[in-house]
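User: quick one
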Amino acid sequence: MKLFATCDRGLEPVLAEELKALGLSGVRAASSGVEFDAGQSALWTANVCARIASRVLEPLAEGPAPDRRALYDLVASLPWTWYVDRGQTIAVDAVVAGSAVDNSVFVAQVVKDAVCDRLRADTGERPSVDRDRPDVPIHVRLVGDYALIALDTSGERLHLRGWRTEAGDAPLRETLAAALLRLTQYDGTQPLLDPFCGSGTFLVEAAQIARGVHPGRARLAPSGVGFAFTRARSHDPSAFARWLAALDDETRARASSPLSPILGGDSDARVLDRARRNATRAGVAEDVRVVRRDALDAEPIGAGTLVVTNPPYGDRMGEVEALGGLYAAFGDTLKRRFAGSTAWLLVGHRDHLARLRLNPQRRYEVYNGPIECRFVRIDLYDGSLRPEARRDPG
Ligand SMILES: C[S@@+](CC[C@H](N)C(=O)[O-])C[C@H]1O[C@@H](n2cnc3c(N)ncnc32)[C@H](O)[C@@H]1O
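Assistant: Done. Structure below.
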C-alpha cells in the first residue's frame, strides 16, 4: 500500500528528499508527486511535517478509463461505505490531462454520481456535497486514458499553513518557498537575507525550518483549517494525540536555542507591515526582522550570508523591460558588496538573468504557478564579475 504526496511540477526530487529525511520509507519520485509506503504515522508525518507537499492522497483504485462509462464503473466498483459514514459530506476534485474526456468539471461530476449511486444502493442514502469543507474529499486524476481515484487526506491544500493571511503583489506559495530553501541547503545556521522580501514568505519558512516548527501544526489549532484525515472513519484520535504530543516535545526542545539572523528588506512599507504580521501569526516574530530598504543598498548580515530572494519580474512586456535596469544594478550590488556570500535568485525572465551579469553555478527550472522560472545559485567572490561586465561597469 502506497500513499502519494503531490507537489508543483519540477519539485518531485526535492519532495522525495524531504520525505526520506522525515523518515518515510519506499519513497519514489513520480510525475507531479512522490509515492511512499502507507501507514498511520506516515500519513500524519507527510501532512503535518512535510513543507513541500501540496496534498497527500490515499489511492483507492486505478485503471483504464477511456470514456465516461469506464470511469463510472471503476468508481462505482469501490466499497464506498468503508470510507463515507452516514451523514458525512463529500466533494470531488478532478485533474485531467491529455484525456479524451478533457473537462475536469464533467469528470468530477461522473465520479460524484458513481460514489453517490453506490452509496445509495448500499445504504439507501445519498451523501450531501459540501464544496467548502467536505468530510471526505475525493480526488481523481485522469491522465490520458488512465484514472487514479484517491481520498484526499489533506483537505485544504498544504500551503495553507494559516499564517499568511496577507500578501503583497506576487507572493510565493509557501510550499515553493520551502522547496527553494531546501535547494539552498539552508538549515538555520546561516545568516539569511531576502532583500526583496514582500510579505516575508522566505523569511517565515526559514524561521520555521530553523526552529523546527512543523508547517501543518497550526492547522490543528481551533481556528485552523485542520486536515481531512481527522474526519476519516479510520482515524484514531487518541493515537494521533500521542503522536502529536511527541512531535511538540521535539519542537519545544529547539524553541529557545539562539538563531542566526533572518532579515528581510523591501522598498514598500505596506508589504513590510504584512510581513511583520505574518511572522507574528507564524510564531516567529522574534526570529525575523524586516527593514524598509532599497535592495540596491543591501549588505551582508554576517559571514557566509545566504541571500535568497525573488526580485520583481513584471507581468507585462513594458514592465519586464523596465525592470532590466534593476537587475543590472542588483547584480552590481551583489558583486561589489557580497564577496564571500552565496546568492540564490528566483528569476522569471531569461533577459533579467542576463542583466545580472553574473555566472550561476547551479540552475534549476521551477514553476511559480504557471510561470517557468530559473532558480540560480551564484557564489560571490572578488572577481565574480564577468569579463565584459568589468569593462562596462554601468
Ligand atoms: C516578487 S515580490 C516578492 C514576493 C515575496 N517573495 C513574497 O512571497 O511576498 C518583489 C518585491 O520586491 C519589492 N521591490 C521592488 N523593487 C525594490 C527595490 N528596489 N528594493 C527593495 N524592494 C523592492 C516589491 O515591493 C515586492 O514586494
